Each structure stands twice: as structure tokens, then as C-alpha cells.
Amino acid sequence: MEFVTGVKKTEALELSELLAEGMAGNTVKVNGAVHTIRDMGNVAFIILRKREGLVQCVFEEEITNFDLKDLKEADTVEVTGILTESEKAPEGIEIRLTEIKILSEPAEPMPLAIAKWKLSTSLEAKLNYRPIALRNIRERARFKIQEGIVRGFRDFLYKEGFTEIHTPKIGAKSAEGGANVFKLDYFHRPAILQQSPQFYKQMMVGVYDRVFETAPVFRAEKHNTKRHLNEYTSLDFEMGYIDGFEDIMGMETGFLQYTMGLLKQDYERELKLLEIELPKTKQIPAVRFDEIKRLVSEKYDRKIKNPFDLEPEEETLISRYAKEEWDADFVFVTHYPSKKRPFYAMDDPKDTTFTLSFDLLFRGMEITTGGQRIHEYRKLLEKMEVRGMTGEGMEQYLSAFKHGMPPHGGLGIGMERLTMKLMNEDNVRETTLFPRDLSRLEP
Description:
The protein is an alpha+beta fold. Helices cover 29% and strands 26% of the residues. It has helices at 15-18, 123-128, 130-133, 137-159, 198-208, 246-266, 268-274, 289-299, 312-326, 377-386, 395-402, 415-422, and strands at residues 27-39, 43-50, 53-60, 76-85, 93-104, 163-164, 170-171, 183-185, 190-193, 210-218, 231-240, 286-288, 330-334, 347-348, 351-355, 357-362, 365-372, 408-414. The longest helix is centred in the middle third of the chain and has 23 residues, at 137-159. It is elongated and about 85 Å long.
């Protein structure tokens, strides 16, 4: 019998270990995938792909105990050699090989030229071959940046006293209402895939005061645009004992400040690869819905077509206005019309045609919706009655309010959209690992 005592230390080194001071001149062992081979005759440069980046290895006929003809792109290997410094190599180091051991070989040639600096193929091809396309260094860097965004969200909210929760995605009733839900047969009972964790996170405010979740949500919207998905990841939080919806905006601003700092500190390699300029987050302007529509209409000579919502073109113009007038990359648009907000949104007591809610726009696109919620049971019932709603399927949700809830509010951030705009991409599928839309269920 043997005992497992913890993480097993391996002889093979990672890129960060190779870059440690004093490593040059040592014999090292490294594993990785053959990213590309540049055969120069007696000498060949073999580039290995590691989780942290690329490592250049030098094959020399008289020194390396291996036949180069037996090596091909996409082989996974374990190599041994002398680590040396080299200004021309990636990261300034290379390994002069003495041995190569093949761990596995591909069954077919690569369908995409993943070793190229930019993957010059269509988005459709990249999505069809997603697990292969992401082996391209720049393509996979997108999702390291996305990791940093989610990590920043989690770390910041933990620091602010939030509890992470995990809510069900199969439910009896949608939090958002409307017909855009995926319906399913749940053991001969009607059920839906949740459009939002809204009901659950509100209920849990009565338990933990501050909660958050990062999880998928589902929208059965028949949109086929560059900004819509039918499944996306929502970064949600809800917080109790607020003085107003401004507290929610302040918390999101804090998250953005923390996360941009984290990206700058820990994701410098990926930021440089993708040539990303981090946005300004020191202060974010907040302007009323009706006021910004008027300002944009006047400045850009655009007629207001829909007084109750923002059209995509308006979002673009509002962001342009914010950049030109306030040098702001983000802008909060507050006091959305009650007509376009869910029943649980708290109306503005000064004018109940508006709500104490907001959207956050980033470089021309809405990435967040949030606001203050109705926390009093009777007022919640009154709002539902005005809208012709019944409590069927929402008994447990309403029960939490029946037994007392603090003033609270929260928001949901579209992770893929935030990543998309951070990278100045044109299509949200570029920053979605495996997109689900009207036509795509695979891979």
C-alpha cells in the first residue's frame, strides 16, 4: 500500500522556472507540444508550446541524440538540454537539445496554421476547429485575459465581504419574464432554463447580505447579431443594506478598478500579445437616461426614435459622447423607464415612470444591467398586480419578502461582452470559448 501525500513534483520545468535567475547553463528537462519546426539544415529551431508561452529549442545534428525526420508539428515531447540565453529567442532563452522523447503523435495534419502570428482564417473556421484554433498563441491569450476578468470579479467581491453562491439553472419560472425562455420537460412537469439567477440571489441577500455568482444564463432570443448569444456567462452580485442604487454603481466601479490593476500586474504578457490598451476607470460618469438621449440627439443631430430604450446606434453615440466630453471609456446610464425594466425594479419615488436602475456602457455597448430592487412584500405585489402578473411559480421567491428583506440591489455583467470590448473585437463569438447561437450547438 502507498500513501498520497500531496502534489507530486516533476522534473520537467515550466517557463517561469526556466526564466528564474541563475538557471542559464543548467541541464533542464521540459515537456510541451511542437508548435513549429524551422529546419535550417544542420541546425533546426523547434518551438515548444507551453501553458505560459513558447520555448525555443535548438536541434544540432552532432549534439542532439535524435533523428529530426521523426519529429513533426503537434507531437508532444519531453526534451533535455542546456539552457542558454539568447536575445533572438522568445523570452530571451533557448534550450540546446541533447535528447528528444516523443510522448504522443497526431493522427492527421493540422487543419489550421496555428503557428502563424495571426490566425488568418474566417471566424466560422476558427469556431468549427475551436480546440485547434485556440492553440494559436494570440487566440488563446484572449481567454487568459477573460480568466483575469473573472478572477478580478471573484477576488474583489471576496475582499468586499461577498459570499459566492451557486444557483440552479433549471426552474419553474423565469426571473425576467417574457417568452424568450428555453422550455423543457422536467419529469413530466414544465420547466425552463434560467435567464438569470435574479430570484435566487435576491433570496440569498436575506441570508448572507452580499452574494455573487459567475455562471451561465440562457436566452431563447432569435437574434443572429454580433452582440447576442443564447448562452453566456453572467457575473452577478446582489448586496443588501444599500442607501441607493448608487452603491451598486460604486461597487462595480471598484471591481473594474481592481480588475484592470490585476490585468496590468499579472497578465502583461497577454496584454502585450493582443496590443490591449486598458480603459480608464478612476471615475465613471453617470447620466440620466432621458438626459443623455437628449444630449446625443442634439450633438449628433439624431432623432430620438424610441423614448423607452436605447438602440445599438445610440449606445455607440453615448459612448462617443462620453469619450469626447469627459474622456471616459465607461458611462453609466441611469433611471431607465419602468416600462423596460422587470417588475422587481424599484421605481423612482420622484417619478414612477422611471426606475432606480442603470446600464453600464463600454466602448459603445451595454455590458451591465443593474439597480435597486423592491424589498417590501406589499409593494412587490402591487407592482405585479399593475403588470397583470400572478405569483404562480414564484411562491418561494415571494416568501422571502413576506418574512422581511433589507433594502438591496445588484447587477449582471456579460462576461463575453466585457472581454469583447476590452479587446476591441467586433463579434462576441471571438471571446466566447464555445459559442451557442441560433445555428451553433457544436463543438
